Amino acid sequence: MQTVNVPPFPLSGGCQCGRIRYRLKAMPVVFYLCHCTHCQKQSSSAYGESIRVRAADIEIEGQPKGFHVQAESGAQKVCEFCPDCGTRLFHGRRPEAETFNIKGGTLDDAAWLRPAGHIWTRSRQAFVTIGADELSFDKGPATYQPLIERWRQMTGQT
Ligand SMILES: [Zn+2]
Ligand SMILES: [Zn+2]
């Protein structure tokens, strides 16, 4: 198991052009990678990076634009991006949601991130290798609890 050296809070981040900025004031709930085909599309890359945060722990400056998609799991989710530069920023942010996901690459310093695990690995790109000791789910996990618990161990919260 890898350990994560989390930098001191708050952490800052934003879109590529700087119109949307955010500050994360406390430890994320979990960080994982999603290899579903939707995340390959939304990231224009091999996988999506999801940092789940508590809504109360984040301050956002600027107004992202949102639209709804149907996830591979069948669930509807709102996806938000910068209206100027198109950078994908947040998934699942709704007024009633206690948590939502930040896209990991939007952190100003993302070098410290180590994923708690991988989901939807059945559609992962062949060149992406997953370590034998890394949590891995063929599809979406029935519950995120194993990933959350691994993240807590990796970040020294237990
Ligand atoms: Zn932007
Ligand atoms: Zn995905």
Order of helices and strands: EEEHEEEEEEEEH
What overall form do the CA principal axes indicate?
A: globular
Low-pLDDT segments = none
Largest sheet: 8 strands, mixed
- Oligomeric form: single chain
Overall average residue pLDDT: 95
Q: Taking Cα atoms only, what radius of gyration do you get, to the nearest Å?
A: 15 Å
CATH class: Mainly Beta
CATH topology: Metal Binding Protein, Guanine Nucleotide Exchange Factor, Chain A
Domain CENP-V/GFA: 11-113
Protein name: GFA family protein
Organism: Asticcacaulis currens
Keywords: Lyase, Metal-binding, Zinc
General description of the model:
11% of the residues lie in helices and 32% in strands. With 158 residues, the protein is mainly beta. The protein has one domain: Beta Complex (Metal Binding Protein, Guanine Nucleotide Exchange Factor, Chain A). The chain is globular and about 40 Å long. The chain binds zinc ion (2 copies). Residues 34, 36, 38-39, 48, 120 line the site of one zinc ion. Keywords: Lyase, Metal-binding, Zinc. It comes from Asticcacaulis currens. This is GFA family protein. Belongs to the Gfa family.
